[in-house]
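Narrative of activities, Objective 1.

The group set out to show that a structural description can be obtained from nothing but a protein's sequence at a throughput compatible with the screening campaign. Below is one input-output pair from the validation batch, recorded exactly as produced.
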Amino acid sequence: MITLSSPILITGAAGFVGKNLVETLKAAGYENLLCFDISDTPETLKDYCARAEFVIHLAGVNRPTDPAEFYTGNAGLTDTLLAWLEQANNPAPVLVTSSTQAELDNDYGKSKRQAEDAIFEHGERTGAQVYVFRMPGVFGKWCRPNYNSVVATFCHNIANDLPIQVRDPNYEFPLVYIDDVVQCIRDAMEQGVVMADRGVRPICRMHPIHTVTLGFLAETIQSFPEGRKTLATPYLAEGSIEKKLYSTYLSYLPKNAFSYPLKMNVDNRGSFTEILRSPERGQVSVNHIKPGIVKGNHWHNTKNEKYLVVHGQCTTRLRKVGTDEVIEYVTSGDKLEVIDIPTGYTHNIENTGTETAAVVMWVNEPFDPEHPDTIFLKV
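Output recorded for this entry:
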């Protein structure tokens, strides 16, 4: 049973997957991570193999100058790791990340397949639980651009106003997101739960897998910078590839480009500034209202709004169309309170304080001048 104090060996801990895994485990409270990487000595790995209660083997070679390094860096390192586990009589479970290229007949694929075979044979000899995960292309924050990830390269280049190359827009390939990879590893480590193929030597697979085309990838990532001008948010449904790509893209923004200006519509009453808009999630804006100023006096058939005074004091008044009763709500930035504006109620908001008020407003649909659904009527 793995606990937060269990010694967990992670090889390749400074790599892309390793760094994400290590930081996630630290945040979850794991306090005894045995992190091994290329700068550490073989003696360190030997010591860690004797102490570990779970082994996560991420280290490997994918772009060497000499193809022979595939075998020393993938199969060879795996052999060394397993030999030291067996020498220490350590039956700790071993999880290794392989590649879908293990199914191919190239040097990289062969070296990965050799490493897989070694892991399975280790489990058969020692009785240790083994997990062999085959991963497609992995993307997410901290992945090195212009190396072996097209997503990282596209995100880096587009975020830095650099060109990208799309040789075949219809080329289709699978991807898996780094947070999903980390979760699959944790599921195996903490619960022994994996998605695996049937067979004597079941291959585990990271999930969910997103199959995309190169053209879709380029078009989607290229749309992200435009959102700063249009204020439109991308499609962000839970689990969607777009949501994961957008989070990845933001991690590649240069340090001087985290902020961007908004258009403030200013007049003698104050200002109105839209922050973002989405067809599915509506529109968010900030309204500055000077003391004594009234804004609004309109109603909607289907459109609905929420008001939140975050600074100053305002009185919101509402009257159901066709009736005389006026309902009042006094709210201020001292005690945050959201006011729902029901459909069919004409409404306004007045700054009844002594300083300019700031009101965050949400409406369930972006303003469309062709179909405004806004009817003027004094409260």
